[in-house]
Amino acid sequence: MTRVQWVSAAVIATGVALAIWRTLVTGGGLVGGDTYPYFFPQKQVMAEALRNNQIPLWHDRTGLGYPLLAESQAGVFYPLNPFLYRFLDINSAYSTTIVLHYILAFLLTWRFVRTQNVSHGSALLAAVIFVYGWFPARVSLEWSIIGGVWFPASLWMTDRLLRQPSLRRFACLSCVFAAHLLAGHFTLAFITQLCCCGYAVIRGWQNSREESATGIQTTRSIRKSGVAVLPVVGAILVSLALASVQLIPTLELKRLSQREGVSTAFDPGYGHLPPVYITQLFASWWFWHTPEAVATRELSMYPLLSISSATNQVEAHMYFGLLPLALLILSAGARLRMRLDQQVWRCWALLGILSLIYATGWLIPISRHLPGFGFFMGPGRYTIITTVAAGIIAGQTLDALLIRRKPVTRYLVSLMIGVLTLFDVTASSQYPVRDAVAVEDAPVHGLKDSWVRAELSKLGEGNVRLLAPGPNVTNLYGVSSVPQYLGLGPAEYYVDEKTYRTGPDKADASPFPSPPEVEKLMKRGVTHLLTTDRIPMLAPEIELMGEGPDSFLNNVWNRGMSPCFLYRFKDPPSRVFIRDSEIRPAWSWVGRSPSDITFQITLAEDSVVGLRELMLPGWQVTVDGQPNSPEAEGGFARFVRVTAGSHQIQWTYRPTSFLAGSMVSLGSFIGLVFCCMMRTSGKPDGRGGAV
């Protein structure tokens, strides 16, 4: 590796990313998929907390609240986020994250592929295949491109550790694994760890076979192949300790969530790759990616040998490009294959085929009972291994075809194939596969002119809870809203809460909301309703507050100039109330943040005071500065028993899981640094070790 190669790879990585995502670079943004219903509401609360020098532990705007850190995909402790979201607006920070990770993913993929005996130019082609073949179709999923950075980085560090074991390289691999875990979405992190272990086992076995051929005893060499994976497993264990500040709260939430056990609320087979859809590798343009195929949902109409779980075009997307596919087919020829590095070819052919088989979901009935596997959905995501394998083998094959050509010719041919492949794979993921697009005017910019936001802001954040379509999107008004949309959420939201209707049925001529729905909404503290169609017959408890096109929602939902309708309860429920009483106490907010709520209340008699917010372990209460015990009843309200008189009640979120995770992370990091320093400071002995 030369400095010129590093610089050229970095320039190409940056240039391609800026060209592909130029709309994001020039102030635009993404819209569609999970961008606004899921990620932006998290980023908004996280950014506000960071700017107020607070740790964003709780999200109080989605539903009746949930543990933001524990849900994990906000990436509260991911190294880049505290800086980007503290100093940039959320759209700029989000766009910067996307573009920066595309640059790093390309560069690190190139660097790892170079370790596989692939030339500079062919490694650039492999990076194009991997980064722009697999990720653009998943652009609405922020975690995918973040995994795109740490996947090749982990493989590179694993390869370095296998070639020359050392404590420093072990520490580097551990930190890379930990950074991937801190990003918050653990599916790709788990896949990455499995791939690194598989790579270590296969390469260790291959090396042992070579040693056996030179006369070393077979049993000894086989033992060495098993030992090769131990440092990688050790690095995974250390990374779990380093990332405990994220993992321990997430494990606590899992125990309290809809994913505790295998239930109808969680299907680990969802998002698989139907076997017939593998034909997209060569049939993308004339069948699978045509608008007609998607409009008629052809993916679900051809379930050849497919499992019963549902899937979608994004999760099932796998496309390498036609030229790389031709190179893969050529590599199967015996004469050409003899020119390839047999260890590399066999290793990645095996890993690629195994991951493709698992992506079909065929093994889910077995794997769902294994540690780790049963926790994640989306087996189609294992095609990330197949894609990087395709890139490496295609690069090797191109080198073999050009081996007798001049270096300049080899580089120019590789560059030409890479450019053609880039256009091929990016166009394939544009339409109709991609479920999010980059637009020049990001919808979030419309918040400043939103009439709905202006009306709600007059009432104060703590006095509004909105029932609205498009779960979580209206969180961005700065108010609490229902229903919720969560990947890993408290179980309460998946029993009774999920039955919300956000508007009347078209064939229903009765008033909306119905009397049972009114009662339910009042208990949940809902004060306003937002609809995209006028309610034909209003319930007597609500009235129209305003109507008109909204500069934010209309852009998010691409509704043109269609009006939105804002309603309110004539007698809205109070966020603070007395249990089992119709009397409304006199109260007022003293201070309010997602993790710390204080209010003043005056009571005529001893009462149990309730707050219409979700109650989970970690919430502590004080009355007039003195610790008190929350009432055992929880769920969709927090209760504390208070004597008559005027009192100040403070609810603070201090989860033990966060404190324990912080201590484990800090202790393991200090221990790892100390070990590396001790090793480095040791004097070399006569055998090259450290004394």
TL;DR?
This protein is an alpha+beta fold and 691 residues long. The chain contains 26 helices and 17 strands. The strands form five sheets. Strands 6-5-7-9-8 form a five-stranded mixed sheet, with no helix packed on it. A five-stranded antiparallel sheet has the order 11-12-17-14-15, with no helix packed on it.
The strand count comes to 17
Categorize the overall geometry. Answer: globular
Number of helices: 26
| Helix proportion | 40-55%
Protein model, in words:
The protein has 691 residues and is an alpha+beta fold. Among the domains are: 450-573, no CATH class; 577-654. It is 48% helix and 11% strand. The protein contains 26 helices and 17 strands. The strands form five sheets. A five-stranded mixed sheet has the order 6-5-7-9-8, with no helix packed on it. A five-stranded antiparallel sheet has the order 11-12-17-14-15, with no helix packed on it. It has a three-stranded antiparallel sheet with strand order 10-13-16, with no helix packed on it. β2 (58-59) and β3 (66-67) form a beta hairpin. 48% of the residues are buried.
Key features of this structure:
single chain; 691 residues; alpha+beta; 5-stranded mixed beta sheet; 5-stranded antiparallel beta sheet; 26 helices; 11% strand; disordered C terminus
